[in-house]
Design goal:
This protein is α+β, with helices and mostly antiparallel strands and about 200 residues long. It contains 3 helices and 11 strands. A hairpin with a 5-residue loop joins β8 and β9. The two termini are about 20 Å apart.
Length: about 200
């Protein structure tokens, strides 16, 4: 398996952080250092690492206005994956977040746009929505995007995987399985939102 239990991407929801904690089998993201290592507490996103299928370069983009932080992965083939955490939000509707993304897609995709819900419901006590969108540009290019949104109590968490060409069935199912493994948990409310059993071990 590509995803090992001890390799996780953890975003701690304690207001926007200057450096997202990324554990790639005990290695930090290049250019990201925290000393001392922060203690995990409260609500957080746990995303399995490494990303499937290939080599990826990573960068972080933070915004003090939103406030939010984006972690963006790109590959040499032009593939893009993004995890975006938006903080200090309350009672956000997952359907509204989907509509927000779809409206942007409809405006940008002059030759055609479609969107289809794949799964929706409650995941680990939080609302989640997973869908795909298909964008057709006037130059003939087609982009397929896999989206996932989880709405926590203190932040909402978005993931997008953009394919600049249609993936094979095997590749598509690989990424579907990957996003199903995302989890938002809360160490302060372990009964309602339990964290993975190996979380504390992972953080050592």
């Amino acid at each position: 398996m590509q995803n090992e239990k001890r390799s996780q991407f953890i975003v701690n929801d304690k207001k926007p952080v200057s450096c997202v904690l990324l554990l790639l089998i005990s290695a930090w993201i290049a250019g990201c250092s925290i000393s001392p290592q922060p203690a995990l507490d409260g609500e957080m996103l746990v995303q399995k690492m490494p990303l499937p299928a290939g080599q990826w370069e990573v960068q972080q983009i933070s915004s003090e206005l939103t406030p939010s932080i984006e972690t963006r992965w790109t590959s040499s083939s032009g593939a893009v994956a993004q995890t975006i955490v938006t903080y200090e939000v309350r009672n956000v509707d997952v359907a509204a977040l989907k509509n927000e993304d779809d409206n942007i897609g409809e405006q940008a995709c002059e030759a055609g746009f479609s969107s289809k819900v794949l799964t929706e419901g409650i995941q680990n006590g939080y609302p989640q929505l997973t869908w795909r969108s298909l964008c057709q540009a006037v130059d003939g290019l087609t982009a397929l995007v896999l989206h996932k949104v989880i709405v926590g109590n203190e932040a909402h968490y978005r993931f997008r995987r953009t394919f600049m060409k249609r993936p094979t069935k095997e590749e598509w199912l690989l990424w579907i399985d990957y996003v199903h493994q995302f989890i938002v948990c809360d160490l302060s409310h372990t009964l309602a939102h339990p964290c993975p059993a190996d979380l504390e071990q992972t953080n050592k």
